[in-house]
Amino acid sequence: RAYDVDVDVFDLFDFMDVETTAINEIIDKGRSELTYADALNLVIERVKILTDSESSLTGIETGFKKLNKHFGGWQPTDFVVIGARPSVGKTTFAVNACMNIARAGHHVLFISLEMNETELVSKIASVLTGVDSERITHGEMNDDERGRVAKASVENGAWTSRIHIEDISSLKDTQVAGVVQRAVKRLGVEVIVIDYLQCITSDGNSPVERMTNISRACKSVAKATKKRLIELSQLKRRDGAEEDPEMSDLREAGQIEADGDIIVMLGRPRGAAMLRCKVVKNKVGPIGVVEIP
Question: Which backbone phi and psi does 91 adopt, to 5 degrees?
Answer without folding.
Answer: -70, -40
